[in-house]
Amino acid sequence: MSAAPQTVMSNENLWEMDRAHTLHPWTHFGSFQKTGSLVVARGEGCHLWDEGGRKYLDAVGGMWCTNVGLGRREMAQAMAEQAEKLAYANYFVDMTNGPAARLAARLAELAPGDLNRVFFTTGGSTAVDTAVRMVSYYHHARGNPGKSGIVAREGSYHGSTYLTQSVGKRAGDRVEEFRYKEDGIWHLTCPNPYRRPAHQTEAQFCDDLVAEFEALIARVGADRIGGFIAEPIQASGGIIIPPEGYLRRMWQVCQRHDILFIADEVVTAFGRIGHWFASLAEFGVQPDMITTAKGLTSGYVPLGALIFSDRIWEAMAEGGQRWFTSGLTYSGHPVSCAVALKNIEIMEREDLLAHATRIGAYFNDRLQTLEALPLVGNVRGRGLMLCVESVADKGTKALLPDEANESKRISDVAEAMGLLVRPIGHLNVMSPPLIITEAQVDFIVETLGRAIAQVTDDLVREGFRLG
After folding, report:
1. Are both 225 and 266 inside the same structural domain?
2. Which domain range does residue 369 map to?
């Protein structure tokens, strides 16, 4: 019996089907109903093509994740070979599979210190969700059931489950239509040096941030706070690189008060800033847990992981009678784990960590030239995490009103020029694949500069004041 012929859909057909039937993550209903979605058909390396055949340089890297680039045949072959051999197997309680076992051992080898235990999840949100719940489990197992609270930071993003969106606190994620967990979660000041008080040096700002944490512990009680969670660099919160020494000092506070330090490395791990994991290598912090996803498989298939210390395992397992009653149908998925192993192999073979460090420095230097533009207040980044912040006034750092919508307008103009950047608030964010070249960096900077200049002219014509 012959296979039924596939219906060839035009770009317009697919656009309309999507608009009529899909709720996308972070949908803005008005603009979606009006303009719909960009229908992507193909990807290769750092580039995407839409269904109409137009080519774009994807400076966003999908969603911070296409680290080894798209269209790699050996990644596809790893999927196919594993799916043919073992497409799925139960991973609960006392069953495993070869790729999952090998990947767990590999992650333990790559992770710093005694982070030798791995809990596989479906992505970053579920990894962080598990980490936050494990904080409570660990302290309860040690006889401190009340030590379950979590401290996070303003402007942080830790996922989109009910629990992780409550722990994170990025302004654009909080809407009145949803409810969020509030008890047992506290938030500290965002460690953004660009937005520090005008009278403070960066060192003084850092002192105040650490003192704020100590004051919170004194007020709430260390017996109620079980964990502190931090992205080494706040990603969706605006590429926030904290003051020198901040993370290590916050970790030292955690050490003094028996508070677990969770490093949310969903974005920063797997080469994004030139390391397998950034916490110890870049910031001198030995976390108790690391959450990861995204670059773990370079976005080819969904997979996340919570990597945690032997000390936590031993406390939870003491006596051998407890059950860890949490898991996901797709935990330890053999196809996903096989892809992650191939991804790590490619990154090692092509020395992509070193390349990300070199090309990231070049990208940062080139991008700094955009600070000469009247709309640009700050350019910042590390490795291949970079952004441009727009302001109405460079001196006061005042922002444009929301209705100016300048970052989305910049991204729209750039898209028309063949460049994809991500608008977040008043920022345009970039996190390209680690394989990006200097010529491609030049294209990004030159195209983004032209887009910013065009939007600046439009804003002035519309009456917005730029000081």
Report:
1. yes
2. 38-68+352-461
